[in-house]
Amino acid sequence: MHRPASHRVIPRNVQFDTTIGHGNSWMGGDPVATAVFNALSLTFPDGERLFMDAVRHYRPQLSGQLAEDARAFIAQEAIHTREHVGLNAGLDRDRYPVDAIQQELQGRLQRLETYGPVAMLGVTIALEHFTAMMADLFLDDPRFWDGVPPEIVRLWQWHAMEETEHKAVAFDVFREISKGWSPLQRYRVRVQVMVVSTLLFSFNITRFAAKLLIADGVAPVRAHLRVLDYLFGRPGLFRRSWRAYWDWYRPGFHPWDHDNSDKLDSWRELFPAPQASGAAA
Ligand SMILES: [Fe+2]
Ligand SMILES: [Fe+2]
User: Fold this and answer.
1) N- or C-end of the chain: fewer Cβ atoms within 10 A?
2) 200 φ, ψ to 5°?
3) Where are the domains of the chain?
4) C-alpha 71: how far from its chain's center?
5) d(CA 85, CA 222)
6) Spatial distance between the Cα atoms of 183 and 126, rounded to a whole number of angstroms
7) CB atoms < 10 A from the CB of 168, how many?
8) Ligand nearest to the CA of 77
9) Cβ-based neighbour number of residue 141 at 10 Å
């Protein structure tokens, strides 16, 4: 399946009061969940800059609806970045190694950029698969948000909704720029970028969340084990999406094979699209 015919990607210039909610263990009093979500939020601004750069590089080769979707994708990611920068600003830098985490991530992303635009787009489509899987979980399971300040819940839900809305845009850009490749070559690149991205993403989030927990006073080995349990045990933030994850390796896979457009429509009601221009950034 490809994108639903009537599907549109619409940036919404929503601003959140991110000064609320960065007290200790804002994820419902759970320090491990808090560390994992803080780690995710800390990786978003630089990660999303990579996604924007990767898609922007190919914009001159795009036309029609895909060109429009690419423009909207970049606008959405830019607004996500702005809001997560605001959210991350609330982290106590005297307590948490925020700058060290971001420098480590930036170093890895700079190395990735040296491999060129196809590698950047490849990692983008793989990581967009991860964000789409997590978005589906976040929007579907209200238990993630028990005890979380409502404004912060809204921020994550808005981000998850727009990640769902644009989940196939970078993928479709990849299909477009690789249309002259053989099916085997395209498949091989898709598999390679997913293997690399899975290792990097799992490693980064585990390592960064553990660093945050260690700053909370948890012993290093225990901090890593608790984060791994949150991701792969209970509640299993990564584990629970294993079916969608493995789907990626099916030849001919497309993100809209997992058609959650019905749910997307109800999630969109929480964040109405702008009326006038249709774009906010
Ligand atoms: Fe995003
Ligand atoms: Fe995204």
Assistant:
1) N
2) -65, -45
3) 31-257
4) 18
5) 29
6) 18
7) 27
8) 1
9) 11
- What class, spelled out in words, does domain 31-257 have in CATH? mainly alpha
Ligand 2 centre distance from Cα of residue 188 (Å): 23
Distance 77 CA to ligand 2 centre (A): 6
From the CA of 30, how far away is ligand 2's center (Å)? Answer: 26
Read off the tokens for 240.
């629970």
* Number of neighbouring beta carbons within 10 Å of residue 116: 11
Judged by DSSP in three states, 21 sits in: coil
Place of tokens 């749910």: 263
CA distances from 171 to 77, 125, 167, 219, 246 (A): 15, 5, 8, 40, 16
Structure confidence by residue, pLDDT tens digits, 177-227: 999 999 999 999 999 999 999 999 999 999 999 999 999 999 999 999 999
User: Ligand 2 center to residue 221 CA distance, Å?
Assistant: 32
Q: Are 76 and 166 in contact (CB under 8 A)?
A: yes
Q: Which two tokens stand for residue 57?
A: 């590089």
DSSP 8: -
Q: pTM of the full predicted structure?
A: 0.95
| Centre of ligand 1 from the C-alpha of residue 128, in Å | 9
